[in-house]
Protein 1
Amino acid sequence: MRLILMRHGETIWNAEQRLQGHENAPLSARGIEQARSFRRVAQDLAPSRVVSSDLGRCRETVGLIGYADAPSDPRLRELRMGVWSGRRKPDLIAEYADKYWAWRAGSYQPEGGESWLEFQGRVVDGLRDWLRRGDGDLLAVVHSGVIRAALSAFLGLPQDRMVPVTPGTATLLNFENAASDKVRLEGYNIGLFAPQTADAVSD
């Protein structure tokens, strides 16, 4: 059983390196192109089931890849970023470098934000629930942070050691079965666009 985690297409805020969290911005022209291009990848992967985060950028993406009727799940939302929502990554690093990197490592949460453990817990609960609901491969259209949380939980990878996935690409995890702890990484940053550098990608 595969879990295919697709990151939504680039948004206007992604292009501006702004943190989005539970806030939302529409897909940029590049993000629309990324999503439309991924439609071919999705057809080749042929998932049995599709679900998405309920935030607008994921709903826009899931429609563009051909699954507009897919259900939404708020458990698959991005990390809530509190007072940092809408702030630019370079500005946060300039003002709060230590706090920013501690946040990336999961050991700090800005005011009104969600802790890494809370976030990871709800993401894993949501993904495990959807994996148990049926047979065959599951495609989940989600966020960069959700993918890091899944890789950290299922593979034990430290989240601060992962480069954020490029918008419009997929990460593939192979599960022995829906309840299994035996999980293997099949692919990362899979898509029709070259992966972006870490500096160019924001959550």
Protein 2
Amino acid sequence: MFRRLIDWTLAWGHSRYAEPAMGVVSFVESSVFPIPVEVMFLPMCLARPDRAMRYALIASVTSVLGGVFGWLIGFYFFDLIAHPVLEFYGKVAAFDALKEATGTGAILVMLVTSGAAHLPPMKVVTILSGVVGFSLPLFILAAVVARGGKFFLLAWILKTYGPALAELIQRRLATIALVTIVAGAAVWLFAHFT
């Protein structure tokens, strides 16, 4: 099933409707869709480096709006909408574990790590943030920093260094994700214990 979703997403990335399709994928990926927008974003930036910053802006804005939608689902419609979605993806146990460990600092760390490296999945964090009533303005600010920072950094890297670096990033994505998580945890620990 996921292979078909990835193929479908990539096909949209090569169409003349690539920008609106990427915006839609970016929006729904932040609340319900399982395929990361990077599946479209990276090839689009590599194919048209002159538009990389434009793509970053589209992905950032729509991702943050999708995150707000996920927050609203969690805040207003968890039992009706979010719980069945989490059951469908097999993420109820992960969600419950995150909910138990939630505080402002934990949500901020999760927003940064999920926004930058999808750990935990962004849709889980956005819905969780709404369920626990996390401050919506602070949520938006954290999402702008995490998601916007990632998309603009990737766009700049791909525009500047091109395909060779993109290949390196793909090969080392696990290491990059781990470093991001450790850095986020260090920031949280520093903020929490000082």
